[in-house]
Amino acid sequence: LLWVLSPPWILLILFPAVISQVTLMYISSSKRKSEQLHHQAHHDLLTGLPNRSSLMLRLEEMLARTSANPFALLLLDLDRFKEVNDTFGHQTGDVLLREIGPRLRGVLRASDVLARLGGDEFALLLPGTGAAAAVGVAEKLLHALDEPFGVDGYEFQIGGSIGIASFPVDGLSPTDLMRRADVAMYAAKRANLGTAVYATELDVNTPAQITLYGELRRAIEQDELRLHFQPKVDVCTGALSGVEALVRWQHPDRGLILPDQFIPMAERTGLIRPLGNWVLEAAVRQSRAWERDGLAIQIAVNLGAYNLDDSNLAQAISGLLERYTVTADRLRVEITETMLMRDPDNARRVLEELRAAGVRVSIDDFGTGYSSLAYLKRLPADELKIDRSFIQHMAEDAGDTAIVRSVIALGHELGLVVTAEGVEDAVSLERLRAFGCDRAQGYYFARPMDADSLRASYLSSADEALQAA
Fold it and tell me: Going from the N-terminus, what domains does the chain have, and what CATH number goes with each?
């Protein structure tokens, strides 16, 4: 013990112990600091979620595996978040962003990755998930966002747009997958779809799409577009009750091009606005031509999501009607239930302005959205159009039959005229008549046709189609 207590031995024994202890403490502190720096480099400081850098590393890891399994990449962009920041300030916006992470996380599996890319953009990695299953996840995510967020005593209703790209179908590198999910996301946002899956036709950067874009812009400017009209008939009398205007493209080389070949591209590139303006003016112009010929035919025009963002829409339509001296009740606008529910308050304001201007309003594709009855009864509409998906399966689906009957009764209770879309056979027509449906349209009566064909054939034979049922 004495030797142990002697100064040389104390130094010899305790010195390593002290150094060991100090070194241990130094290593521990350094490790903690390194871990903190690594976490900060790979996580979003506001939400605590993985950031873009972390997401790209995870993508690279998944792609580097020799037996890489399929997976889906989803990009989510919030709707109306900028309005929260502009109105209530960034502090409120930051609180809202922190609440979004847990809301979305509640929909996902433990193996799924949720990251914040910056601003109001998020990304999700779904291992072992194909595009079809990813669409189901996307719907759950959007449904989760539909629930109001409570922040500082206020309730915020936001939504989102989601683009989906999948490995290996849509790309083999992180850059390709990110770009293509981004293309799909903006397609969903422009078309107000909620969710879009990447497809090559969505990519305006392909040579074919660049060519189509230039040709469509020229077609709008040089009046190569045409309106076709699908009749709507009174279910009881067979009389023509109006027409729906549908745009067609008379291409100089390729002939008549149907809308599903160019409308999606127009929505992605912004050409949908001049295209929509052309349709509106062409419909009003045709209405004036029919009035001169003594034909009082109401024309329905479909509105797009961009129309609901136009604060001057009612004024612009009133100006068109005045320029062509057409009475407002000759024009009807149709807007889908899904678009109405993306921003219900704004949609209601726009429709109220249109009704105040004398324009008729229809709720299109009813049954495909999530509108509540309380909201429906407050809408300034006078027509409800039942989506064709319910009409076409009435013969073999008792559930669809019950839904159609109920919607007709509901519409009448709310004082709305009810129109059935997609009527293609006599059995469906007979059932609609028995249920008290007011109007119908579909291939059973007539396919869309140009103005001359409508006048020549349909106006003189509407009764024959109904009497043959």
Answer: 52-202 (3.30.70.270), 207-468 (3.20.20.450)
